[in-house]
TrEMBL record:
Domain Anti-proliferative protein: 96-115
Protein family membership: Belongs to the BTG family.
Gene name per UniProt: Btg1_1
Protein name from the UniProt record: BTG1 protein
GO CC field: cytoplasm; nucleus
Amino acid sequence: AGSGAAEDMRTEISTAAAFVTRLLRAAGGVGEEQLRCFRECLQEAMHEHYKHHWFPLVPSKGSGYRCIRINHKMDPLIGKAAGMIGLSHERLFQLLPSELTLWVDPFEVSYRIGEDGSICVLYESPQPGGKVAKQLESRTSCKEEWRIGRSSPSKSYNM
C-alpha cells in the first residue's frame, strides 16, 4: 500500500471533517470563512494522522487510533484545526457536543453523540473483495464494546 492507500481515504476524511464542520455551523457564531478554514485544517490533520494507519484490506485495524473523540477532553485533531481559526478549547466545548465519538474507517464513517446514543452511519461503501460479512461483524463488536463501556471482555481481543 503505497501512496494509493492515502488517496483512498479522501472520501472518508472529507465526510468526517464536513460532519464536524456542520456541527460547528449549527451551533452558530462561527463565520463561513472560518468554517471553511477549519474544515481544510481538520482534513489535513486527519490525513497526516492516519497516513500510516489506514488498512483497506483490514478496515477495523487501527480503528481506535483513527477514532475522533470528545469526552470531557477535546480531541487533539479537532483542537488543532480549531486553534488555526482562533477557537479555544473552551469555546469548542460550548459549540460541540460534550460526548462525541466519530469512527473514520476504510469504507465507513459513523458517529455517536452521547455515551448511550445510537450509532449513525455518515458514509458507507462496499468493501472490494466481498468481505462484507466479516467487516460488519468486526464493526459491530468494536462498537458494541464502546456502547457497553467495556464492562465485559470483548470477543475481539483474540485477534
